[in-house]
Design a protein that fits this description.
The structure holds two protein chains of two kinds. Chain A is mostly helical. Chain A contains twelve helices and seven strands. Classes of the chains: A mainly alpha, B mainly alpha.
């Protein structure tokens, strides 16, 4: 009955392509390929015809032309005489900036909330559940526009800080100004000798790693455990502070000051950047918290009991037994949350933050009318970011995978 | 025994003592509070901090909500009314919701036709009920199958014959399959079931619908897509996307898991591409680029274009969720299906897919929730969903500067929809649970 046991018939019949299991998968694949190619060809042919009819041949030359628009938030030198390509690069850097800031905020907040949600304190656990549910069940775009609206409507304008009886004042010993245009924070100022401080700081960080390796080897050889945490803390602070004070405090702070109608000096963080970072960070933190909770719950209770039975202290149980196992569960979904955050940062366009969707997919697209080219590049950029992050994730997964025998 | 004791031991109790209630510190609310609120110094501090936090927030929010004004006609007037109350932090101006809630629900849909949208919504609940709750009579499923066409006619109006000829395509496909399957084998039947309706829709459906409309003019007042908006638009896009992305996602997952190399490559390429780009770029494609890929001169509706893109987007995520379910099934299930002599489709339909779908319910529902939340992104390409409408409302000179009331209302509605979806998925998980 089964086709595989049939003796091969003499000669090849056309019906074997469909009814013989040896050939059928080949037939299906070739039909699928032909249909797929026909479909793609049809779409591309249509696109070519339509573009030709509109007199817009596919070309990427516009990337070298002067952009002619300003970008208010930039990490590298840019003015409106520079090219569209440069504007797109500014946008990419802005995307990465908000993504990195958002990821840091989401991780810190998410871990804290995830752990607190597991706490045996009833009130705290409930509060965290409320936080998680309310952020997870409301669209991120709503959080973004809401945060931006709160910024604009409720914080004082810079002029409220002016005059004898100002209605607003700077916080943290007159160093930080929170206005509806954004946040002004002090900026480090470098004097002569500051390089030495920075070099010492970097060296002490390397020193911490070297010490860590050395103390681990020593422990494996002798079984003695040093107070690692305190020694590392000392290496982190002491040399840098010593050099800093010996050289006569070569790094200072430039405080923002009210001049005319606006603040001058310091670092200016635009309100759109802060609103976007906050909204994305708070939203993603709810998802991260759920991942953390799932990860910790995935480590079975027997693991910590076994560790206590072996006489490990609660601290070492956490560090050596529970965390390594929980991280194996937490990290992959965590990275995919980072990926989501990066993709969600494209919603910056709703609050006027100039990320790559705002420059390349927004103003450049509208000015040049090159929809096809702009969107192709835009998608390629996001695709590249996603593929890089997910290949890092695959590499990590591979390295922590349980070696099964 | 007790007799002997009575002689040897000075005193032995011979009756049981009545059971006593546990001490008040070891049971009841006090014990509970000890265990859950004040079990250690750290916990006590946390509890006190949280209670203080709750008190501060609630004492701010509750009066703000409760004493809000429902009557003022502008934000300025409202602020005056509210400041007379003498509250430390003011009160809400709910009148913006009272004035605009119809717009937030229906967009610019003509108000004399609201009954059509309402009817479509009620019928949607009827159509969804048998899918969600298997206890209901199975016959309602026929109505569920017809509902999309009915809803299209109710919402967009126009002639009744357009949806009728669209349904006729499926009826034709069924008969073509039945007849040719018996006459010429299953393969010819399947091919005919695909070709006949395509030919019907592309070539014959238009003229037939026009002819029927000329003879029997059954039509309602048409409403153009530009007038759709508010939560109605979110629900249309969300529900259509949800209904179409699940089957598409299942097919993509099967393609990705299959042994056919080329099919697998196409599916993997599609899934990874869609998952790698943000939805907003796909919506840009829908709004500016999709017409380029169609034969010159074709235009089709922006809502339809958006629905297509949202569906493709969600189906890629759905495919990954379903693939996870398929991968989590023990290999024994596949082998058992093979051992029973089931062919691929029967094994998938009867053995593997039901189990895989059951495993992946949480993921599927969270994809649905994500899709419904993502419908708000259409505001960026200029459709008037609730968030798109807030820009209009806040630009109105009467309501310039309103924040919490408006966004809070929209957030609340989204929360209700999404939260009930997640609760439903928990109910389903409990009901389908067969493990121990």
């Amino acid at each position: 009955m089964s086709a595989t046991t049939d003796p091969p018939k003499d000669g090849f019949q056309l019906s074997q392509l469909i009814y013989d299991t040896r050939y059928r998968s080949m037939t299906i694949q070739i039909v699928a390929l032909v249909l797929f190619l026909l479909g793609v060809g049809w779409l591309l042919n249509n696109a070519a015809q339509n573009l030709a009819a509109l007199g817009k041949p596919l070309s990427f030359g516009f990337l070298g032309e002067a952009a002619g628009y300003d970008i208010n938030q930039k990490l590298i030198e840019y003015n409106n005489q520079m090219s569209h390509g440069r504007a797109a690069l500014v946008g990419v850097l802005n995307t990465l900036l908000v993504a990195v800031l958002g990821c840091i905020l989401a991780t810190v907040l998410g871990v804290v909330i995830g752990v607190l949600r597991l706490s045996n304190n009833w009130v705290v656990a409930r509060l965290m559940t409320v936080y998680i549910e309310s952020f997870r069940n409301v669209p991120v775009l709503l959080w973004i526009v809401l945060t931006m609206a709160i910024f604009i409507e409720t914080f004082p304008a810079p002029r409220a800080f002016r005059g004898e009886n100002a209605s607003a004042s700077m916080s943290l010993w007159d160093s930080v100004a929170l206005t509806n245009r954004g946040l002004y924070i002090p900026k480090p100022e470098m004097y002569a000798g500051s390089t030495a401080v920075i070099v010492v700081f970097l060296l002490s960080i390397i020193g911490i790693f070297v010490f860590g390796t050395w103390s681990r080897k020593r422990q494996e050889a002798t079984g003695q455990i040093l107070p690692n945490f305190w020694i590392k803390l000392a290496i982190f602070f002491v040399p840098t502070l010593l050099v800093y004070f010996i050289l006569g405090r070569p790094i200072g702070l430039e405080l923002p000051e009210l001049k005319g109608f606006n603040f001058q000096g310091g670092i200016y963080m635009r309100n759109s950047l802060i609103a976007l970072t906050l909204a994305l960070g708070l939203y993603t933190a709810a998802f991260v918290a759920e991942n953390v909770r799932a990860g910790i719950m995935a480590v079975s209770k027997g693991q910590s009991e076994a560790a206590f039975a072996l006489g490990l202290s609660p601290n070492r149980t956490m560090n050596l037994i529970i965390l390594p196992q929980a991280l194996r569960v937490i990290i992959p979904p965590l990275i995919s949350q980072y990926l989501n955050l990066t993709k969600n940062s494209s919603l910056a366009i709703a609050v006027g933050y100039m990320d790559v969707t705002g420059t390349l997919g927004g103003i450049t697209l509208n000015q040049t009318g090159k929809e096809m080219e702009c969107l192709l590049i835009l998608m390629a950029i996001y695709l590249a970011i996603s593929l890089i992050i997910s290949s890092v994730m695959n590499w990590y997964n591979e390295s922590v995978k349980l070696r099964e025998r | 025994m007790s007799d002997t004791h009575a002689q040897t031991v000075a005193y032995v109790r011979e009756t049981m003592l009545p059971e006593q209630a546990p001490p008040s510190t070891a049971a009841g609310p006090i014990r509970w509070m000890r265990d859950n609120l004040f079990s250690s110094v750290m916990n006590t501090v946390l509890t006190l901090l949280s209670v203080y936090f709750l008190w501060v927030v609630l004492s701010l929010v509750l009066p703000w909500v409760w004493y809000g004004s429902w009557t003022a006609s502008s934000l300025r007037e409202c602020r005056e009314v509210v400041s007379d109350l003498g509250l430390a932090h003011g009160a809400a101006c709910w009148s913006v919701i009272g004035e605009r809630y119809l717009q937030l629900i229906y967009g610019f849909y003509p108000d004399e036709l609201y009954w059509r949208a309402n009817l479509a919504f009620i019928l949607m609940i009827v159509a969804l009920a048998p899918v969600l709750y298997p206890n209901l009579p199975r016959k309602i499923l026929w109505f569920s199958a017809l509902y999309p066409f009915l809803a299209f006619w109710l919402l967009w109006g126009g002639t009744l014959w357009t949806p009728v000829v669209a349904v006729a395509g499926f009826v034709l496909a069924y008969f073509a399959f039945e007849i040719l399957n018996r006459a010429a084998g299953s393969l010819v039947g399947v091919i005919a079931a695909i070709l006949v309706p395509v030919i019907w829709w592309l070539l014959l459906a238009g003229p037939v619908a026009n002819g029927l409309a000329a003879v029997i003019p059954l039509a309602m007042e048409p409403v153009e897509s530009a007038k759709f908006g508010g939560f109605m638009l979110s629900i249309i896009i969300g529900v259509t996307g949800i209904v179409m992305s699940l089957p598409l996602g299942i097919l993509l997952a099967l393609g990705r898991q299959s042994d056919l190399m080329i099919v697998k490559a196409i599916c993997v390429g599609f899934i990874e591409f869609i998952r790698g780009v943000p939805l907003i770029t796909l919506l840009f494609v829908a709004s500016t680029l999709l017409n380029y890929f169609l034969p010159p001169g074709t235009t089709f509706d922006i809502i339809l274009r958006v629905i297509i893109m949202v569906t493709l987007f969600a189906s890629a995520y759905m495919a990954e969720v379903v693939r996870g379910g398929l991968a989590a099934l023990p290999t024994g299930q596949y082998e058992a299906a093979d051992a029973l002599g089931l062919d691929y489709w029967k094994a998938t339909r009867l053995i593997t897919m039901p189990q895989a779908l059951k495993i992946s319910i949480p993921g599927i529902v969270s994809t649905f929730i994500g899709l419904f939340k993502d419908t708000t992104l259409v505001s960026i390409i200029g459709l008037l969903d609730p968030i798109g409408l807030t820009a209009n409302i806040r630009a109105d000179s009467n309501w310039n500067g309103i924040v919490w009331e408006l966004y809070g209302f929209i957030a609340l509605i989204f929360f209700i929809f999404c939260f009930s979806m997640s609760r439903y998925s928990m109910y389903l998980e409990r009901k389908l649970k067969t493990g121990h």
